Amino acid sequence: MAEEIIKIANCSGYYGDKLSAAKEMVEGGPIDVLTGDYLAELTMAILYSQKLQRGEDKGYVGTFLKQLKEVAKMCKDQNIKIISNAGGLNPKSMAKEVDIILAELAVDAT
């Protein structure tokens, strides 16, 4: 039985982690999956404060959207899956923002 190897690269461990990491992981490949794990305890506190101060439509990690803009097309072209919990306290609003970015870049999410 042959083993399938899946190469996973992580571009974040918390809100405020290295912004260029997503692009570096994709360009440094080859990888199969790009992940972003943003839900450190401090991040959750920041997201809660953001949601209280800026409104109910906030509470997600905005820097992920900047990273996504940089790598979405490359990931689609290289068949790299993107997995992230950057939606934080508001995954629905994050999903809407992701859809807008993908539409602007003409990148199909499937």
What does this structure look like?
The structure is a single chain. The mean pLDDT is 92. The protein starts with 7 loop residues before the first strand and ends in a 6-residue tail after the last helix. It has one domain. The protein has helices at 21-28, 41-54, 62-77, 91-104, and strands at residues 8-10, 33-36, 81-84. It has four helices and three strands. The protein is mainly α and 110 residues long. The protein has a three-stranded parallel sheet, with helices on one face. Helix 3 (62-77) packs across helix 4. Helix content is 47%, strand content 10%.
Notable characteristics:
mainly alpha, three-stranded parallel beta sheet, 110 residues, globular, 47% helix
